[in-house]
Design goal:
Blueprint (H helix, E strand, L loop, with lengths): L2 H24 L2 H28 L1
Helix pairs in contact: 1-2
């Protein structure tokens, strides 16, 4: 996995955590769920990159 991909995935994860926190504070379930979805997408991308890296070796 390239450093750029790692950075993008981490940024998406942190952004998702921020959205989730804002949603909790404001009581906005939509924003909270959107943040959770962003985190899930980031985790799936990381997993996919790790699988690709495993097959390269």
């Amino acid at each position: 996995m390239s450093a750029t991909d790692k950075a993008k995935n981490k940024a998406q994860d942190l952004g998702g955590k921020a959205k989730e926190a804002v949603g909790k504070v404001t009581g906005d379930k939509s924003t909270q769920n959107e943040g959770k979805n962003d985190q899930t997408k980031s985790n799936l991308k990381d997993a996919g990159e790790k699988v690709k890296d495993a097959f390269k070796k």
